[in-house]
Specification:
The protein is α/β, with parallel strands linked by helices. The protein has 20 helices and 19 strands. It has 3 domains: about 240 residues, TIM Barrel; about 120 residues, 3-Layer(aba) Sandwich (Rossmann fold), CATH 3.40.50; about 140 residues, 3-Layer(aba) Sandwich (Rossmann fold), CATH 3.40.50. The strands form 3 sheets. It has a 7-stranded parallel beta sheet. The protein has a 6-stranded mixed beta sheet with strand order 9-8-10-12-13-11, sandwiched between helices.
Length: about 550
């Protein structure tokens, strides 16, 4: 676990290194490219010597060029000469870095740079027990390099290189699989990281695939690369020390997923019951083109399932891919639970990994029983109750079916009426005889419906969603309603959504979405592990996190 520190001054960098050590890091990377100018100032070199001599942890010394995402724009020879000088550490009290990181393009592109770097690591190996070793690196902030394989071969062929590092901006979750595979294919110890929000998986699963290290920011806002998690997140939320080659991989599939509390609760749940699993975000892009969104979901899930070393054992599926998951299951001939089939949407994938008794993947819908219990807790007996459902996606299907199955009269409202009509038509044949009904209401007359409870099932108001500052029903419309029913919001981040805030201001009772999230998550956990999560754990963690 390496914490990168962007050095502006020696005391501040050393203070951060002490803090990193106290939090569990084994290595720090001193990024001196914002400090060292290469202009010949002897104080800069002395400061680097002081930094290395007083470092509380073994370190990587890096002066990253602007061409590969750093700040250094000085002479190339000055940078290489500094690395050679500090690695030689000729005077008493001087300490060379454990590693120096040099971009392969710079190393291979200049005979003088190569000679100085080779001298640096040659002196370090021959004269110091902890002498410097060379990390040859490449970084692409635009995406996967077209010549990635060729460049990896070239780096591995360099005699001076002890470790090779590749980092590029991941464009999909599938990019992580190639990065993780590179670790095992390389003849050297390797670091392979996906930058950006799609690359989290490569950072968390580094120990599963035998990576030399991974990087974690000391604090929020201190990342030296896009998408770099904090030390607290890697060691706490993702339980980095508990990720092994045998660890099963789970995750949350959706768009977006950055707001999700699922990694927090499920990873803690695995720890609580001793399950060898890790749960990561798996963002799968979606757009207005439904077929393109489904194609992306299909390609991602099938590659995750088929990967021979990943041990992908299941996932939660959230907005907007719930209907796509069921469609994929039907195409692939997977097992489908009756509730998911009835509502036309699934939120859970279980991939059995027992080679002795192989079984097909299972898709399930834990939203339905969780929604019925959540609404019942807020409203009371659902028999004969009138429930207004806002939205027509996967969550709306689960809420409508769960409420109607419990005897409620459900009215579905959606801006696109045809989607609401399709939902009602799909659900009616699946409902138990004598239950329901599910009917469609007029969106323009939503406040005249006289429902006893309203349930928002859209992502409107969700932090990180498409419309985070809005309410699915405008506040002025709420204030015009003659009755004051209960308002419930399936969105749980933030807890106090714009809809719930407006409802309270209008004098209505409200119920937040935490109970719904916790209920469906606990049911998913039991499907994956075969045991229940520790009682009250998910609720406590979710509310603590949302209160921060």
């Amino acid at each position: 676990m390496c914490v990168p520190i962007l050095v502006n001054d020696v005391p501040g960098a050393l203070s951060d290194a002490e803090r990193a050590k106290g939090l569990g890091a084994e290595l720090v990377e001193y990024r001196i490219d914002a400090f060292f100018t290469g202009g010949g100032d002897p104080h800069e070199e002395k400061a680097v010597f002081a930094l290395l001599a007083r470092s509380p942890l073994p370190c990587v010394l890096t002066c990253r060029s602007a061409a590969e995402g750093g700040h250094y724009e000085g002479p190339e020879e000055a940078r290489a000469l500094l690395l050679e000088t500090v690695s030689r550490a000729d005077h008493p009290g001087q300490m060379p870095p454990r590693y120096i990181d040099v971009e392969h393009e710079a190393y291979a592109g200049s005979a003088r740079t190569r000679a100085l770097v080779d001298s640096a690591v040659g002196h370090g190996r021959s004269r110091h027990e902890l002498g410097a070793s060379l990390i040859l690196s490449m970084h692409d902030f635009g995406g996967r390099p077209a010549d990635l394989s060729r460049r990896m071969v070239r780096m591995c062929a360099e005699p001076a290189a002890r470790i090779v590092k590749v980092a590029y901006r991941a464009r999909t979750v599938r990019d992580n699989l190639e990065l993780l595979d590179l670790i095992g294919q390389c003849s050297h110890p390797a670091i392979a990281l996906g930058m950006g929000p799609f690359g989290t998986m490569s950072r968390v699963l580094a120990p599963k695939f035998g990576a030399f290290l991974t990087f974690a920011a000391l604090r929020e806002g201190a990342a030296t690369a896009p998408g770099q998690p904090t030390l607290h997140e890697l060691l706490g939320t993702y339980r980095f020390r508990s990720v092994f080659p045998t660890t099963k991989v789970y995750g949350v599939v959706g768009w977006p997923v950055g707001h999700s509390l699922s990694p927090l609760v499920h990873n803690a749940g695995f720890s609580g019951v001793g399950h060898d699993g890790v749960y990561v975000p798996l963002p799968v892009q979606a757009s207005a083109d439904a077929e393109a969104s489904f194609a992306s979901l299909k390609a991602t899930l099938l590659e995750l399932i088929d990967h021979p070393r990943l041990d992908f054992a299941g996932c939660s599926v959230t907005v907007p891919h719930k209907e796509g998951l069921l469609r994929l299951a039907r195409q692939q001939g997977w097992r489908i639970d009756p509730v998911a089939a009835a509502v036309g949407a699934a939120n859970t994938l279980v991939v059995p990994r027992d080679k002795a008794t192989p079984r097909l993947p299972l898709v399930s819908n834990t939203d339905v029983p969780a929604a019925a219990e959540w609404i019942r807790a807020g409203v009371g007996d659902l028999g004969g109750a009138s429930i207004g459902v806002i939205g027509a996606g996967g969550v709306a299907r689960a809420v409508a079916y769960g409420a109607a199955s419990a005897g409620a009269h459900v009215v579905v409202f959606n801006r696109t009426r045809s989607r609401a009509e399709r939902l009602a038509m799909d659900l009616l044949p699946a409902l138990p005889q004598g239950h329901g009904p599910v009917v469609v209401g007029d969106w323009d007359r939503v406040c005249e419906a006289r429902c006893g409870a309203w349930v928002n099932c859209t992502p409107v108001g969700m932090q990180g969603g498409p419309d985070p500052g809005s309410s699915p029903i405008m506040p002025e419309r709420l204030r015009r309603c003659a009755e004051k029913p209960i308002v419930m919001d399936a969105v749980y981040r933030p807890v106090h959504t714009p809809l719930l805030t407006a409802a309270r201001e209008a004098g209505w009772s409200t119920v937040d979405g935490v109970g719904f999230f916790v209920g469906q998550a606990e049911l998913q956990f039991a499907l994956w592990t075969g045991v229940p999560a520790s009682a009250g754990l998910f609720e406590r963690l979710a509310r603590e996190e949302l209160a921060r």
